[in-house]
Amino acid sequence: MDKRTRLHLAAIGFILPALVIYALFVLYPLVISLWGSFFQWRGVRTTGFIGLGNFARLFVFPNWPRFSGAFWHNVAWFVGIMIFQNAVGLIFAYLLFRRRRFGLFLQSVFFFPAVLSPVIVGALWKLLLAPNGLAEWLLNSAGLHSGRLTVLSDGGWALWVLTAIDAWNWMGLPVLIFAAGLRQIPAEIFEAARIDGAGAARILGSVALPLLVPAISAVTTLTFINSLNQFDIVYVMEGVAGAPNFATDTLVTYFYRLAFGSVGSTGITDTGLALALGTILFLIVTLGTIFLLRMFDRATVRP
Amino acid sequence: MKTLGFFKALPGWVVLLLWAVVVVLPIYALFVSCFKTTAQIYDNPLALPPQWTGANFVNAWNSLSLGQNLLNSLIVTVCAVIVTIIVSAMAAYPLSRYDLRWGPWMLLLFLAGIMLPIRLASIELFDLMKRLDLLDSLAGLVFVYIAIRIPFAVFIFANFMRTLPRELEEAARIDGAGELRILFSVILPMILPAVSIVAIFTAIAVWNDFFFPLIFIFSDNNKTIPLAIAGFVGQYRTDWGTIFASLGISLAPVLAMYLVLARQIREGIGTTGAVK
């Protein structure tokens, strides 16, 4: 056996354990799921190839209202997080970057909720926002509100409240990524801008921002993937049907109901529909991620 | 950068401290509520408890099998972290250090897993677990978590291993060391920061996961902490003191870990820019 062959064999031997586990529990179920979305299902058995039949059913009543509703909730979630978490997080990171003292300590404080399970975060905020909870008590004491606080059962508010809680949960992540990005920018660049008379806002907007594109890219891509995968907070705070009246329903809670069912009238599972929804979501996430990465790659400025 | 003047810096400090309050206040309310009755929480959620009694903790501990749930979470997390590190380091080693024509493609196959929405494959994954007799078992969860965490771990390990000088393993090879020896006693000790990043982020992700236990675990004995808490919050809606205590118990180990590892986590995200 020559040296090259031995090298290849050793490499394969090293890669094999990881590859087998990864292929068996991630790639195989994923490929089978995509393939299965083109078949008709009765319970957990296929009864024949139907092409795009499952997909077509997603776009007509009664599935279309659920599907489009959930889709727009995910889009709103993404937009909400981009503004309330990432844009605000960038400002926080910039303020922290200009403050040596306590800067790192505050970064650690801001990040703490991110190590908590979304289940704990959701359960905690459910209690804080419930009637008689901390939020109601604070708002009533401050005279900003009177009587019962019912934002979680109010269709106009619930989705935004959940998005805000997700932002509370993950605010530390953009802060840390942006702070690290700011530290990589050479100090002379900031110095030069200041000597030219630029104010703090101007420096952030026209000097730091273009150089932060890699950090913005990472944060946006992570937010995109996470927003489309929202499930835990919704499940814990509003139930698997996205109460009130599906106002907080997301694509993954809808998928979960179709795949595994739930109590009450929404309890019927529909495997074919679930797999079709999964395939569409897969395409959105994969193509969206690739698009975002390419777009940001083109916008990257190298100092 | 030069220190800012006091008055110029003030608005910034106000903004930062305001958010610090928004982060800390809910955690503080959680902490004091653990020691209060429901009526006392309603009365003033922020007041210190009249007496520091552990009654809520006893209630929470007895009405839930929190001890068992904590142990389950710990077993699953430790096993998943250890195996993920070993198999991912083994895969990353040839992919970053050997000159293989198919290497980049294999690496790409692994890295694709970072963004693949694996939750959508859960119907077929459920079917697979049933055939492998892994449903309702901690071992099943461990396998799924290892598989999900491998892409991130391979990504981090390969990036760190690439930066090491080639002479490192060549010297060891001349000394007659086998490839496994070289990986675990020469290469890995050089990239301990990568090992700790992978360990910390795998542990956080596995410890906190809710989706897969929800699907794969049915019996109370096998529930992990997030699954047990989610069920508990649904059932005991009126006894706030006990719910807060159960949240407090499940939050305590994470808080303890964070107090020790906050700096590593901060620097880990600074160097990778990725967490999930």
Structural class of chain B: mainly alpha
CATH superfamily of the domain at 65-235 in chain B: MetI-like
The helix tally of chain B amounts to 13
Total of helices of chain A: 14
Order of helices and strands of chain B: HHHHHHHHHHHHH
CATH class of the domain at 65-235 in chain B: Mainly Alpha
Helical content class of chain B: over 70%
CATH superfamily caption of the largest domain in chain A = MetI-like
Report the mean per-residue pLDDT of chain A as an integer: 87
User: What is the number of domains of chain A?
Assistant: 2
Number of strands of chain B: 0
Distance between the termini of chain A: 50 Å
What does this structure look like?
The complex is a heterodimer of chains A (303) and B (276). Chain A is built from 14 helices and two strands, in the order αββααααααααααααα. With 303 residues, chain A is mostly helical. Chain A folds into two domains: 3-52; 55-299, MetI-like fold. A two-stranded antiparallel ribbon of chain A has the order 1-2. Chain A starts with a helix and ends with a helix. In chain A, 44% of the residues are buried. The model of chain A has no long low-confidence stretch (mean pLDDT 87). Chain B has a domain at 65-235: MetI-like fold, CATH 1.10.3720. In chain B, α4 packs parallel to α7 and α8 packs antiparallel against α9 (179-190). Classes of the chains: A mainly alpha (303), B mainly alpha (276).
